[in-house]
């Protein structure tokens, strides 16, 4: 018997990406340059936004979003504890205080109610996450935060290709942050993006990612005349490289196809799992569609505990993962006393993420489901 190995995720990288990266290297322009500019234009258009500002990661994108909004010491920023830890960390980078809010069980997302429950006069902003690609209710959260006079930063790290109210999740966002880490649906190795509609904000973000310079290094080098740059504020080096953007441009061509394929595989998982008691697979919310960046399953009166399910899957060659982490349970946040977070704790304790990627076959899926079916009747 050949040993089966089913990874939880594999990035879809082909010869086209390798060629594009090689061309960037051969061009001699490897730092932020024309390919980054093109990647920004094309990504912004796919995300439903006017401007894209590429950066080194979604973590640095979130940091810059808070700098842009002038959030700082004394301010509170509401975040879901149920998220990759970078969401909460970004708040601490600017010296503000992260305040954890609970999520709803079905989507894993913040709601206007869970935010309102922890809101204080010091709340300056909310970072809402499209959890594992599942869109939060953009209309509800945007209108609630607007009515409270609180800024809404959208952590769309996992959500390229997800939609809400018939539009890409980035459409209509004040500021959204995206990731191109290989664990997401499209990748540039490491990489991130900010999208905004406001032109002045795009200009400021471009400056913040590049040492506060009033003219980009790329524009300076492209000019026939000497250009003397000025440094207008203390800022950062959060640039993306043209090698990464070259890969990203190819990945953009794949995005729609990858999402369509993930949605088909997810629908097949849902069908197969429907016959097993005690498992609740993630689904589209009524107002939108997920890209299924993460296909998670919540154990609900399942006879076997989550960690044992993970071990049994691993023993059968299936690499699954625990569900989304909860920052408030990590040592880095031991000094924070959160309000009760029952749905967050339930999801992080009782859910797991099943393999889903472009190379997953129906046979692989049947194998994954057969392990779960056996455990269900144990
Ligand atoms: C992956 C992820 C991040 C961090 O993205 P990087 O590009 O790796 O910095 C932030 N927020 C969420 C919700 C994520 O899933």
TrEMBL record:
<comment type="similarity">
    <text>Belongs to the DegT/DnrJ/EryC1 family.</text>
</comment>
<keyword id="KW-0032">Aminotransferase</keyword>
<feature type="active site" description="Proton acceptor">
    <location>
        <position position="184"/>
    </location>
</feature>
<feature type="modified residue" description="N6-(pyridoxal phosphate)lysine">
    <location>
        <position position="184"/>
    </location>
</feature>
<dbReference type="InterPro" id="IPR000653">
    <property type="entry name" value="DegT/StrS_aminotransferase"/>
</dbReference>
<dbReference type="InterPro" id="IPR015421">
    <property type="entry name" value="PyrdxlP-dep_Trfase_major"/>
</dbReference>
<dbReference type="GO" id="GO:0008483">
    <property type="term" value="F:transaminase activity"/>
</dbReference>
<keyword id="KW-0663">Pyridoxal phosphate</keyword>
<keyword id="KW-0808">Transferase</keyword>
<dbReference type="Pfam" id="PF01041">
    <property type="entry name" value="DegT_DnrJ_EryC1"/>
</dbReference>
<dbReference type="InterPro" id="IPR015422">
    <property type="entry name" value="PyrdxlP-dep_Trfase_small"/>
</dbReference>
<protein>
    <submittedName>
        <fullName>Aminotransferase DegT</fullName>
    </submittedName>
</protein>
<dbReference type="GO" id="GO:0030170">
    <property type="term" value="F:pyridoxal phosphate binding"/>
</dbReference>
<dbReference type="InterPro" id="IPR015424">
    <property type="entry name" value="PyrdxlP-dep_Trfase"/>
</dbReference>
<dbReference type="GO" id="GO:0000271">
    <property type="term" value="P:polysaccharide biosynthetic process"/>
</dbReference>
């Amino acid at each position: 018997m050949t040993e089966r190995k089913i990874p939880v995720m594999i990035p879809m990288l082909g010869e086209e990406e390798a060629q594009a990266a090689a061309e960037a290297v051969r061009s001699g322009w490897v730092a932020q340059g024309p390919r980054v500019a093109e990647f920004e234009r094309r990504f912004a258009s796919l995300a439903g936004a006017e401007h894209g500002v590429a950066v080194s990661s979604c973590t640095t994108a979130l940091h810059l979003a808070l700098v842009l909004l002038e959030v700082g010491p004394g301010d509170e920023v509401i975040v879901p504890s149920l998220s990759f830890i970078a969401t909460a960390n970004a708040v601490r980078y600017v010296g503000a205080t992260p305040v954890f809010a609970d999520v709803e069980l079905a989507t894993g997302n913040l709601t206007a109610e869970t935010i309102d429950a922890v809101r204080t006069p010091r709340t300056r902003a909310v970072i809402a996450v499209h959890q594992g690609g599942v869109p939060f209710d953009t209309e509800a959260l945007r209108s609630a935060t607007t009515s409270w006079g609180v800024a809404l930063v959208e952590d769309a790290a996992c959500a390229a290709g997800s939609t809400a109210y018939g539009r890409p999740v980035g459409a209509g966002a004040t500021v959204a942050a995206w990731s191109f880490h290989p664990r997401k649906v499209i990748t540039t190795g490491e990489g991130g993006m900010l999208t905004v509609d406001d032109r002045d904000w795009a200009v400021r973000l471009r400056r913040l990612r590049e040492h506060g310079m009033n003219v980009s290094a790329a524009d300076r080098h492209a000019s026939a005349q000497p250009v003397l740059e000025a440094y207008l504020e203390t800022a950062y080096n959060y640039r993306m490289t043209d090698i990464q953007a070259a890969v990203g441009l190819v990945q953009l061509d794949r995005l729609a196809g990858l999402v369509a394929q993930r949605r088909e595989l997810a629908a097949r998982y849902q069908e197969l799992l429907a016959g097993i008691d005690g498992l609740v697979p993630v689904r589209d919310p009524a107002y939108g569609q997920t890209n299924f960046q993460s296909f998670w399953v919540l154990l609900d009166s399942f006879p076997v505990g989550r960690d044992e399910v993970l071990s049994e899957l691993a023993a059968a060659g299936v690499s699954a993962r625990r569900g989304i982490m909860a920052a408030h349970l990590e040592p880095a946040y031991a000094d924070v006393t959160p309000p009760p977070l029952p749905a967050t704790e339930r999801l992080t304790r009782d859910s797991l993420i099943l393999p889903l990627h472009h190379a997953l076959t129906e046979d692989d899926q049947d194998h994954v489901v057969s392990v779960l079916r056996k455990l269900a009747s144990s």
